[in-house]
Structure formats: C-alpha cells, structure tokens
C-alpha cells in the first residue's frame, strides 16, 4: 500500500498519514460538538471524551490515538477556547479557495492547522517565559488562566502536516 501511495503521489506518503488525518479531523469534529467548559477539569474531561470517541472509531487505545493520530494543535485550539471559532472562520475561507477535493470538515481542519502553525512560526522562540515553561494564557468565559500546552510525545501526528 505504501509503495503504491508513493508511486502515485511522488511523495513519501504512507497509509498512516491518512489515518492521522482521519484521527485529527474526527477529533476536531468531536470537540466542536462539545459544550464550552468552565475550567481546566471540565476541559480535560471533554478532551478525554473526544479522544475516546476517536480511538473507538480508529480501533486504538486513547493513549495511542492521542499520541499518534491527533494533531496536538487541534487539542491546543480547544484548550484555548478557540476551536469552534477558528474552524468556522477557516472553513469559510478555505471553502472559497481551491480545496474542492476535500470535505468541508477536512478543509476546516486543514485551515486551522495552517493558521496555528503560521502563528507558531511568527513567535520569537524565547521571548515569552510562558512558552518556555509550556504554559500560556488562555481566555475563556471566566477570564485568562494558564493552560498547559499539549504536545505530541512522539511527534507522529505532527509529521503528517509538515
């Protein structure tokens, strides 16, 4: 399968890349369907619930699913309280551009990831001490509070989107 994918695309694409894409889109959809959260504990419960749904669909454990098949920026956008807004805005923009081969939810997730990766690329590496500590300010319904940045331990999910 992987040889076939490489032959028809001319790129180093594997079946895992498609599985990672599917897991990322499913996670974004599951998280966007959840109610907003009031605090970190509720946010973590919501993340766990969404990841469990995705892992059941992919046939993996939640830990493997989160580590290998969901791009961490989708989880970060949710923790920032911006996932639904970013998906809506980006979907509208991307649907007007040349993504006619993607489903609307795929176009939205692709746009979200592109925008968030562009933001990360623009930030100075060590100017903000919160970035170094892995924490940053997130604004939710009850004001700013430090939320942990979610990173993929294995980096597998990120690889597929570079």
Automatic annotation (TrEMBL):
<dbReference type="Pfam" id="PF01028">
    <property type="entry name" value="Topoisom_I"/>
</dbReference>
<dbReference type="InterPro" id="IPR013500">
    <property type="entry name" value="TopoI_cat_euk"/>
</dbReference>
<dbReference type="GO" id="GO:0003917">
    <property type="term" value="F:DNA topoisomerase type I (single strand cut, ATP-independent) activity"/>
</dbReference>
<feature type="domain" description="DNA topoisomerase I catalytic core eukaryotic-type">
    <location>
        <begin position="1"/>
        <end position="80"/>
    </location>
</feature>
<feature type="region of interest" description="Disordered">
    <location>
        <begin position="142"/>
        <end position="162"/>
    </location>
</feature>
<dbReference type="GO" id="GO:0006265">
    <property type="term" value="P:DNA topological change"/>
</dbReference>
<dbReference type="GO" id="GO:0003677">
    <property type="term" value="F:DNA binding"/>
</dbReference>
<dbReference type="InterPro" id="IPR011010">
    <property type="entry name" value="DNA_brk_join_enz"/>
</dbReference>
<protein>
    <recommendedName>
        <fullName>DNA topoisomerase I catalytic core eukaryotic-type domain-containing protein</fullName>
    </recommendedName>
</protein>
